[in-house]
Amino acid sequence: MTRFSLLFLTFFLSACAAIPTVRPVPPGPDRDAGTQSDAQIQRRADAAARQFVAVVEAVEPVAEAECRRVRRVGPCDFQIVVDDRPGQAPNAFHTLDRQGRPIIAFNLALILNVDNADELAFVMGHEAAHHIGGHIERAQRNATLGSELFGRAASTISGGDTGAIQAGVELGAVIGRRSFTKDFELEADAIGTVIAHKAGFDPVRGAEFFARIPDPGNRFLGTHPPNAARIDTVRRVAAGLR
Questions:
Q1: CA dist 157 to 43, 69, 168, Å?
Q2: CA 39 to centroid of chain Cα atoms
Q3: What are the backbone dihedrals phi and psi of residue 107, each rounded to the nearest 5 degrees, phi first?
Q4: DSSP codes of every residue in the chain
Q5: What per-residue confidence (pLDDT) applies to 11?
Q6: What is the pLDDT of residues 103-132, one digit of tens each?
Q7: Distance of alpha carbon 133 from alpha carbon 178, whole angstroms
Q8: Are the beta carbons of 90 and 24 closer than 8 angstroms?
Q9: More confident: 11 or 190
Q10: Distance CA 152, CA 149 (A)
Q11: Contact 106, 82 (CB under 8 A)
Q12: Residues 6+ apart with CB under 8 A from 155
């Protein structure tokens, strides 16, 4: 069941302000808030809000069905929320509430900066896929295992020094948590491609959003894989769906 913030809808439809993380879309005739009239800004806000609602209504039931098919256990009722604070860089993320129910959050900047509905659908499918893949739980287990291993190693090497053990535990948690995040991102891209496709959107066109994200490269313990690897994943999975 879709849940929208009435505060968000009121704010977004009545008073849209000028509007990584993600590099914003370059200004153009229809995007440069500094040269637009209030009426133009309002029309853009109205169009973005309608597009967002339409995409959520199309993608959410598909994501929930895919969640039930793949996860089989655990909650699959996605809560869709919007961060309506102005002045933020475009962003979307997946998290869990205190009962372990999945939340997908978007902020206004992302909703306003996608080029089309396919991009928005792909982003939503990608974030839903993090829950379907159990990535938060898996990252927590990896962090716990890393803490234990590095804590034991630090204890042995330091002869039981408390400070060294604590440092080892903290380092192990960081390394454990980050060791597979690139794999998680690629897995989410693959599952997100399936979700977007099943919802009636073009995931390859949607993945063009990566062209506006700074390329993280292939850094050791980086949290995201190179953009080229992500685009290749989407194209490969999409080709198998045709």
A1: 64, 47, 10
A2: 31
A3: -110, 165
A4: -----HHHHHHHHH-PPP----PPPPP-TTT-GGG--HHHHHHHHHHHHHHHHHHHHHHHHHHHHHHHHHT-SS---PEEEEE--TTPPP-EEEEE-TT--EEEEEEHHHHHH-SSHHHHHHHHHHHHHHHHTTHHHHHHHHHHHHHHHHHHHHHHHHTS-HHHHHHHHHHHHHHHHHTTHHHHHHHHHHHHHHHHHHTT--HHHHGGGGGGSPP-TT-TT-SS--HHHHHHHHHHHHHHH-
A5: 35
A6: 999 999 899 889 999 999 999 999 999 999
A7: 16
A8: yes
A9: 190
A10: 5
A11: yes
A12: 161, 164, 165, 168
Handedness of CA 111, 112, 114, 119 (dihedral sign): positive
Residue 23 token pair: 């590099």
24: tokens are 């914003």
Give per-residue pLDDT as tens, 50-91. 999 999 999 999 999 999 999 878 899 999 999 888 888 888
Question: Quick one: tokens of 84?
Answer: 């309506």
For residue 32, pLDDT over 80 is answered with no
